[in-house]
């Protein structure tokens, strides 16, 4: 893990509330790992690492002042990382993601054999080379009509995770969890999740877990 000072290169709007933020600096990371970035209030937020236009990049959903600052005002952003564990799988996989994981999808595509389905609540504002679905109805239809894959990796809202788990139960399904994180290094315990082997922490044990390892109730 390193201390980082990232220089924002540009932002690209993906849909109503999500942007891709590209950085000048390259970070050496494994797909699945994340960074904790500081905002002016010193609140650190986790972002999964990825690529866009051959630059290190993150996807940011603007939810409040911190994320708005990252997208609209920040020039240099402090943080630390990469954190968490990378993910590598043989065989052909399907990534099922929200727009906030598009950059992670690019990182996984560089290393693994994957197709990508992106589900968004609002229309896309840039063309994407992936399969896309706008709205719940279209997402469910496309999810139900996907072919067979060796494994599946889901990253999105809790609602999206639950829908995918219902549809894909019995298959080899992984989830990249997006719990609230305070420290990113296993110290604050804010990212605890219940698993069949007891409490685990998304920042140090994850962020990617097998679906049948998690407690879903
Ligand atoms: S974020 Fe602090 S323990 Fe995981």
SSE order: EEEEEEHEEHEEHEHEEEHE
Portion of residues in helices? 10-25%
Largest sheet: 7 strands, antiparallel
Mean pLDDT: 93
Structural class: alpha/beta
* Small ligands present: FE2/S2 (inorganic) cluster
Estimated share of beta-strand residues: 35-45%
Q: What is the number of helices?
A: 5
Number of strands: 15
Through-space gap between termini: 34 Å
Shape: globular
Rounded to an integer in angstroms, the radius of gyration calculated over CA atoms is: 16 Å
Molecular structure report:
By secondary structure, this protein is α/β, with parallel strands linked by helices. The chain is 20% helix and 39% strand. The chain has helices spanning 65-73, 102-111, 136-144, 158-168, 202-205; strands at 2-13, 18-23, 34-38, 44-48, 50-52, 55-61, 76-83, 92-97, 113-120, 131-134, 151-155, 173-176, 192-195, 198-201, 208-210. The strands form three sheets. It has a seven-stranded antiparallel sheet. It has a six-stranded mixed sheet with strand order 10-9-8-11-12-15, sandwiched between helices. The protein is globular and about 45 Å long. The mean pLDDT is 93. The protein binds FE2/S2 (inorganic) cluster. FE2/S2 (inorganic) cluster is lined by residues 181-184, 186-191, 201, 203.
């Amino acid at each position: 893990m390193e201390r980082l000072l990232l220089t924002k290169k540009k932002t690209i709007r993906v849909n109503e509330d999500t942007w891709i933020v590209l950085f000048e600096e390259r970070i050496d990371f494994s797909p699945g790992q994340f960074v904790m970035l500081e905002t002016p209030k010193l609140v650190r937020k986790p972002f999964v690492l990825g690529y866009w236009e051959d630059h290190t990049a993150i996807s940011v959903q603007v939810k409040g002042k911190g994320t708005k600052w990252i997208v609209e005002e920040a020039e240099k952003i402090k943080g630390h990382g990469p954190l968490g564990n990378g993910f590598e799988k043989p065989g052909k996989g399907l990534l099922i993601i929200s727009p906030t994981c598009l950059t992670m999808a690019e990182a996984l595509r560089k290393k693994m054999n994957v197709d990508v389905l992106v589900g968004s609540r609002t229309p896309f504002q840039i063309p994407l080379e992936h399969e896309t679905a706008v709205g719940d109805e279209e997402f469910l239809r496309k999810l139900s009509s996907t072919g067979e894959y060796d494994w599946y990796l889901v990253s999105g809202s809790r609602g999206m995770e639950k829908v995918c788990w219902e549809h894909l139960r019995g298959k080899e399904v992984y989830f990249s969890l997006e719990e609230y994180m305070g420290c990113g290094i296993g110290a604050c315990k804010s990212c605890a999740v219940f698993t069949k082997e007891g409490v685990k922490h998304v920042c140090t044990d994850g962020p990617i877990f097998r679906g049948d390892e998690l407690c879903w109730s």
